[in-house]
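Write out the 3D structure for:
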Amino acid sequence: MDSLCESGYFMEKTVIVMEKRAGAQRVGYHRLVERFGLAALPLATAAVIDSAVRGRDRIRQGEQDLQRFQPTYRPDDTPQADLLFALRYEGINLQVLALLFARRGAQDIQPLLDASPQSAYARRLGYLYEWLTGESIPFATPARSSYIRLVDDKLQFGRARGARDSKFRIVDNLPGNREFCPLVRKTPRLQAMIEKDLARLTHETLARYDHALLQRAAGFLYLMETQSSFEVEREKPSVQKAQRFAELLREAETGASLSEDRFVELQNAVVDPRFREASWRTQQNWIGDDLGYRKRVAFVPPRPDDARSLMEGLVAMSESLRATPGDLDPVVAAASLAFGFVFIHPFMDGNGRLHRYLIHEVLSSSGFTPKGIVLPVSAVIFANLEAYVATLENFSKAVNARTDWNPDTPQIPTSGNDALYFRYFDATVQTEFLCWALERTIEHDLVQEIAFLLGFDRARRALDAQLDWPPHSLDLFIRVVRQNDFTLSTNKRDAHFAWMTDEEVRMSERTVRESFAAGVGGG
């Protein structure tokens, strides 16, 4: 059994509850959930009418974005008014809408369409009702009405293009499909990250170096990412296992279709041969600790019967994005697909490694990462495990709170881990984390790794000109001296460099120090 982040522990987080004050009233999705007792996960964004606010503002409370509105924004106390308010100010929440439509049918939608057939928000709700339920509503948009985008680009990330629906005159720019469609909100934090244009920053950073150096750097980066990905799981892979994973990373840029067969091939490549699987799992897996006398369940992925449809939806979203490059922000796409995969946990083993592989696969196929280069994101993840675990738990703890299952009686089916939660989750927190990790990787780790290679090359050339080195000893000298604050330790000298005189050691130490202090240049 592998763990959700394959790090072996879960971080306790403080849950911050929205403060109820006199004059504050929840509206929009929150009021709909409370009014009808909808079994939705905790909302990532909420709206309140607050008499202490002038105009409107937005604050972050724990993991929730809280939008506050002055009383003049207050909608009528009806389901229809809350639906229109939610769509206008909070965006699309497919999970809440699916639960509401299953409970109430079209009774809240039909009156809105009849009263305002040209209303953009009523038409969006009509389209979403048909999209989510598969049921038809009697309606025809007035012929001269303009087409409108389903996902409001000011609130959430949608596709640049989309299929046109003539009935509601809607451009369907949802990022996914009915079986799998995470959504990401345009938070101030993400807006700032997106404006930095990390893809451009990556290409500009690499353009400063010559091609030969980048080819050497690529080899180190693939090894670095492989090692870090296994370190996240607290695993030391065999040479063969590490080589297989590095080869997978190199294949990420080939653009091979992410079909079920391809995923099985990837899973078989990253696990022990004894744990290879031939298809999506047919058992209920779980994440947590087996303490012998009791088991602590931290997360139960979707039921086996739901895993196939969820993965078919994920694969369909991936293939659709691959067919239309640039249609969705690449970091949003990578976060939605990679974190969606690890939440679904479609295999019994190997999910964590494939989750991190999938980040690279999506970034590479979208053109975000230059050909022949892998960004060592797993090194940043390993150095910031608590933040990574918190990102996973942002979803897993909410689902686990609703799930009832005992691993000691696996024959009894789970309840609460419904496919709906995995199909329509809010991937904003996960996208924010991936943006931050990529920024750190591009601005720090990538530059640092290339600087190391430049220093190593300078040291090697200078030392080779100074002394006649025995086979394999020159590179070893550079490594051990650099790792020991540019000083050759007594133990290393006795073990490997007893042939060197004191003066030769001092001269060579100085050469290594000066080589790595020379700075980073273009070649």
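The chain has 20 helices and nine strands.
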